[in-house]
Amino acid sequence: MALQLGDTAPDFEAETTDGRINFHDWIGDSWAVLFSHPKDFTPVCTTELGYMAKIKPDFDSRNVKVIGLSVDPVDRHVDWAADIAATQGHAPNYPMIGDIDFNVSKLYGMLPASVSGDPLVRTPADNQTVRNVFVIGPDKKVKLILVYPMTTGRNFDEVLRVIDSLQLTAKHKVATPVNWQQGDDVIIAGSVSNDEAREKYPDGWQEPRPYIRIVPQPS
């Protein structure tokens, strides 16, 4: 079965560029972003890893840990980091999983269970489905899944925007509308009755339709 929103993120142990980790223990009480790559020394992924390193403080400020993954061994990740620093201006400042037995890729539904063999023999095209972003909450539940083709670089600014929405809506009974940005108006969740809403928002709300109740973003 494919991993779905709300599922518990599969736990695992793996070797990383920061040493061996147990994934759930590594997350702890934080949020986490796991983003995967089909192969080391690939051009689009090189740009992504460098940009993620550049904006990692933005994830840190939101209590979000970042971890990457490629099926290549950890020692190749270390060599790749030098290229990333030289071409992108920032070396990875977060751990990178060496998923040489494809265990994590299989657990997260990125590769079929039948995949085996030497990861160094496999080409990027063989691993083209290993191009995902998973956002995982402190409760270890999957909150977001994004799947990208190899030819399209990921938008990590959008991942930050979604995390802002996820963290806001986890704390308050609201939803965020199209193209919402931090500080914009929000929508009172449909699970909240008008009586409950009046207690929370005594100044009322905008109501273009009875099912659309708009209020300023809660602080």
Q: Layout of SSEs?
A:
Elements: E1 13-16, E2 19-22, H1 23-27, E3 31-37, H2 43-60, E4 64-70, H3 74-88, E5 96-98, H4 103-107, E6 132-136, E7 142-147, H5 156-171, E8 174-175, E9 186-188, H6 194-200, E10 206-209, E11 212-215
Helix pairs in contact: 2-3
Radius of gyration computed on alpha carbons: 20 Å
Q: What is the fold named in CATH at topology level of the largest domain?
A: Glutaredoxin
**Structural class assignment:** alpha+beta
Helix run count: 6
Q: What fraction of residues sit in β-strands?
A: 15-25%
Give the terminus-to-terminus CA distance.
Answer: 39 Å
User: What is the name of the CATH class of the largest domain?
Assistant: Alpha Beta
**Which stretches of 5+ consecutive residues score pLDDT under 50?**
none
| Large-scale geometry | elongated
Listing every helix as H and every strand as E from the N terminus to the C terminus, the arrangement reads: EEHEHEHEHEEHEEHEE
Q: What's the structural domain tally? A: 2
Question: Mean of residue pLDDT?
Answer: 97
